[in-house]
Design brief:
single chain; 4-stranded mixed β-sheet; globular; binds pyridoxal-5'-phosphate
């Protein structure tokens, strides 16, 4: 007999009343074998869909061979994965972590050490309004959400916040000699799918070069094919000094990475940072299978799929003033409503569709990159019906 109870869990999550027992492609199945389309990919993780056979096979084989040795020794799969990620990104070397927040912790420590080597007593990182970088103390301090910070004072010092997508606001800090780096998401995910102007990242690159600051891109959500390039910085035509990624890198296996190049290369040396599990054989073999499976033929389709979805939603909601904007880059989509709409999550689930509402009023979609045309059509039909019904009810009320 299977007994389910949440009473032994610290209630940090308001969980939805469903448990999934298996997955395949864009589909998840609950205990009663009800089928749900996962249009959020486990929060931007399962870019190749659930249980991609190439990934599952590698994971199972590696688990039978060797899972963990520690970083006291060389780890061939870690070296191969690092090389592959550098080839894909133009970065120079990699530190592996077990999550996104930890990858950003590494980035923030690199920025501090970089500053300290330049005799800067209070190294300060420019971060953005609307940003999300994680839940550890440093990444929480870098995050812009007052709600997730509440009650955790004193936060970490050494961050200055400016509006996102505003080069002038960054430029205005040029005379602040404490600044050592800019940390920014190429597309803000948790913040509500906010996409900067085309020249924003290149503008930051130029500014950082001029100021001798590190440009640090948080590609934890935007990386691994999500925006239509392997990393969003490639689409922007720039190479950052630090690039962090996680989520899609393991397609469900927990792994993160902090990649460095340029001014950030050579900052960390022996003893400066570490992780018992980071870059373990199991995670690296699995991520290597992910990266090798996430080939151009999948990634090249992402831009078209995303545009198709955006156009289909624009059409579906053209008669609905409640939908005020649809923002999209690759397969990151945000449907902006003019009012709070978190209840759409439950209604969608009842209709067999898993979505997310972020920033209160943004329906966020991060479907697996392998979603088919027929599945996209189904996603549009289901969501369009739900949001129209929601709008009708609001009018009556
Ligand atoms: N940075 C970004 C842009 C994210 O979207 C997330 C997770 O949502 C994180 C960092 C934190 O990653 P993790 O939850 O793996 O610590």
């Amino acid at each position: 007999v299977r007994v389910m109870s949440q009473q032994f869990l610290i209630p940090t999550y308001a969980r939805q009343p469903v448990a999934f027992v298996r997955g395949e492609g864009v589909w998840l199945y609950d205990e009663n074998d009800h089928k749900y389309m996962d249009a959020i990919s486990g929060i931007g993780v399962c870019n190749l869909g659930h249980c991609h056979p190439a990934v599952t096979r590698t994971l199972a084989e590696q688990a039978g061979q060797l899972m963990h040795t520690s970083n006291l020794y060389r780890i061939p799969a870690q070296e191969s994965l690092a090389q592959r990620l550098c080839e894909l990104s133009g970065m120079e070397n990699v530190f592996f972590s077990n999550s996104g927040a930890e990858a950003n912790e590494a980035a923030i420590k690199i920025a501090r050490l970089y500053g300290s080597r330049k005799q800067i007593a209070r190294p300060t990182v420019i971060v953005m309004e609307g940003s999300f970088h994680g839940r550890t103390m440093a990444t929480l301090s870098a995050t812009a959400n007052a709600k997730v910070q509440e009650g955790f004072a004193p936060l970490l010092d050494g961050f200055i916040r400016v509006p996102f997508n505003d080069l002038a606001a960054v430029e205005a800090l040029a005379d602040n000699h404490d600044i050592v780096a800019v940390l920014v998401e190429p597309v803000q995910g948790e913040g509500g799918i906010h996409i900067p102007a085309n020249d924003y990242l290149a503008g930051l690159r130029t500014l950082c070069d001029r100021q001798d600051w590190l440009l640090m891109l948080d590609e934890i959500q935007s990386g691994n094919g999500r925006t239509g390039d392997y990393f969003a910085c490639l689409g922007a035509g720039i190479t950052p000094d630090v690039l962090t990624t996680a989520k899609g890198l393991g397609n469900g296996f927990p792994i993160g990475a902090c990649l460095v190049a340029g001014k950030a290369e050579g900052v960390f040396g022996p003893g400066n940072h570490g992780s018992t599990y980071g870059g373990n054989p199991l995670g690296c073999a699995t991520a290597l299978a992910v990266v090798n499976t996430l080939t151009d033929d999948i990634i090249d389709g992402v831009a078209d799929k995303g545009r198709w979805l955006k156009d289909a939603f624009l059409q579906a909601f053209s008669d609905l003033p409640m939908v005020t904007e649809i923002r999209q880059k690759g397969l990151m989509l945000g449907i902006q409503l003019d009012r709070p709409c978190t209840e759409l999550v439950n209604r969608a689930r009842d209709a067999g569709l898993l979505i997310n509402v972020t920033a209160g009023s943004v329906v966020r979609l991060l479907p697996p990159l392998v979603i088919s045309q027929a599945e996209m059509q189904q996603l549009v039909d289901t969501l369009s019906t739900l949001i129209h019904r929601f709008a009708d009810e609001q009018e009556v009320a």
